[in-house]
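Batch job 17 of 40 flagged for manual review because the log was empty.
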Amino acid sequence: MRFLLLFLTLTLNASEQPPNIVLLLADDLGYGELGCQGNAEIPTPHIDSIAKNGVRFTQGYVTAAFCSASRAGMMTGRYQTRFGYEFNPIGDHNEDPMAGLPRSERTLARHLHDVGYTTGLVGKWHLGGHAKFHPIRHGFDEFFGFTHEGHYFLPPLYKGMTTWLRRKALPGNARGRFTSADGKLIYSTHMGHDEPAYDANNPIVRGGQPVEEKAHLTDAFTREARDFIGRHHDKPFFLYLAYNAVHSPLQGTDAYMKKFAHIEDIQRRIFAAMLAHLDDSVGAVLAELRKRGLEKNTLVIFLSDNGGPTRELTSSNAPLRDGKGSVYEGGLRVPFMMQWPGTLPAGEVYRQPVISLDLFATAAAIAQAPLKRKIDGVNLVPYLTGKQTGAPHTSLYWRIANKAAYRKGDWKLLRNPRRDQSDAWELYNLAEDLAETKNLAATHTEKLEELRAEWDQLNTQMIEPIWTRPRR
């Protein structure tokens, strides 16, 4: 009898298990590249299925136009400028003892861990390469991946793939494009600089120990994610699967390159191969959830960390203006969707502005994990199920050094100075001009000043950067 009571208790607890949360993050994927976003050139049926079985956000934003600061906002639910995290450590700056997510910030992983979730990060961290910023010190029970901004998918000699690398000069000190005799290696000078030394002092690690990984990283991360789901299927878990695809370096495997042989531009063909590879990998993770009977008890979220760098990758942000690094829409508005069968409506298109900050609040609410401090995000579930009407946010704010933006209703205020260009404020009405082609600053001065005053007021709540990359 005692055994029976224990069995019934365990069964009841399993049936009442809090929902799992799987956060899928693509790297540098532009707004216009998925099938569900209108791109017919590169099929992405598995990522599209998340939108088909759930909700797609047409106005989904991130908090910064590049990797690290965007991840800091998403992981904490707070504008990263509140705690001085404003820039993007790259190369050896990843190991600067000041360049990382402050230990005083409570991550979503820590928050869920503290209410009984098993937490795992697979893939790219990019929130500090110094030991004190390690993911396991930020609430993750498990970590498999790397800590810097990028990584080669396979190391030299790049077997079984086509690799495109940026170079300052071609053989013979030429400019343009060089292709090796076997067609598997392409150099291009179109960006004016070399491919970064992504792998320098940036090993693949399990926990805190380096491992020799022989598989293509997209496949390795998928393997590790599926294994995590399998090992923890009997308890609530949070899996943060941060792919480094489709971030550079551009490397497409032979099988996927063959699939897109009809694309004449080799740079675009490699990108297509990488995106299709990513899509199949997302499909394998979704299949693992179904196999384990977890689909209906798992919130799956998919988004990109920022807009696509078009010249570097060909990643399109159409119909938006500009891309990665910019506070125009192409840098900040990203593919963004989520599914939770039986709870969220299927095939819904949600048109109000939302932001990656909302993921913390949403996850905390469904995990029944009361917030420990005020955050900037909003629980989206009541808005998506119709229990709450109106817009989740009255305004959205951005600051990246001397770049800034502010969204209120259909109006967007911004300044996006390039080198040696004006830092004057610009004003756009996104309902009438999604591509931000008509600057209304000179004709709507009252609206401009209203939004400037509101941005200034919000900006007083932020602090100065705790770290800036030294100039060389």
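Reviewer: the log was empty due to a logging misconfiguration, but the result itself is present. The chain has twelve helices and 20 strands. Unflagging and moving on to job 18.
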